[in-house]
Amino acid sequence: MMKQKLRWGIMGCAQIATGSVMPAIVESESGVIQGIASRGLEKSSAVAAEFGVKNAYGSYEELLSDEEVDAVYIPLPNHLHREWVIRAAEAGKHVLCEKPIALNSSEAAEMVDACNKAGVHLAEAYMYRHHPRISEVQALIASGEIGDLRSIRGTFTYNDAGDTTNIRFRSDWGGGSLYDIGCYPLTAARLLYGVEPEAVTVHAIFSPEHDNVDMMASGLVEFPGGLSLIFDCGMWAYNRQFLEITGTEGRIEIPMPFNARYEDADFSVHTADGTRLVKATGANPYVNQVDNFAAAVFEGSPLYKAEDAISNMILLETCLRSAKERVRFTL
């Protein structure tokens, strides 16, 4: 059991913070919530009282000036990530930043550089990558049971189009389906193939009712050796989540690939021998994310290097550019 506790400051009261990450810190072996900040003291005080947190701050600057805060979690809108990651690094705080880490790869590179110079750990909050099922799927692929990899197919959609005030429908804030949920199958393919993509072609629906963000997108991502990801994502379609990994001798079907916890973590393997259900190890990926972050800080052993976030943004921004210009782009 990890004895040392990482003292967290929460920068904002977004639902992802109060509903998932803060409960995960409380449940974790490695962390404790030192304080929570908002743009107004009334809101942060209410959330602090709810979680039994002793410190509430009426500004983000106050949180960063607290010497008892070791690390900050940033769930702010995408367009604010760059500023506050850099300011946190300059204040000597380790940073867990919600995905996508930035609006583009140039911002991401600047953020990574700032954290490296300050000697603090930076991680992008793709919680699904910390679920034990990921390593179990990787081990199954490595075993050769489904043969050589050939293709990956991924989808993630939901319908929230009626809420036109949603921050995800702000173009200048980094809104749109690619940045919100398309990033999941895109990062999963990079992770499972273990190589970087070579080209992308993406088609999308851009809605004037929603500040012209991409409400739906589908595309082809080309990887070396003829490997591919075919994906679709959207905020204007029926709820769907699926990931299929196909090889020369079989395929893996994961019905809930991006936010599974315990009872919904199982997946199927189909080969010439038949179909079998794999009882994956259940877990709260948010708790694992918190504990893995602390291990990176205390032991210097990150599962994912900060530079991985730059590669994620290169792929994401190129997909969005392809959708806007209706052109295939190489990376």
Automatic annotation (TrEMBL):
It holds the Pfam family GFO_IDH_MocA. Gene3D superfamilies: Dihydrodipicolinate Reductase, domain 2, NAD(P)-binding Rossmann-like Domain. GO terms for molecular function: nucleotide binding; oxidoreductase activity. Residues 6-124 form the Gfo/Idh/MocA-like oxidoreductase N-terminal domain. Residues 136-253 form the GFO/IDH/MocA-like oxidoreductase domain. Keywords: Oxidoreductase. It comes from the Bacteria. The keyword Oxidoreductase applies. InterPro entries: Gfo/Idh/MocA-like_OxRdtase_N, Gfo/Idh/MocA_domain, GFO_IDH_MocA-like_dom, NAD(P)-bd_dom_sf. Belongs to the Gfo/Idh/MocA family. This is Oxidoreductase. It comes from Paenibacillus wynnii.
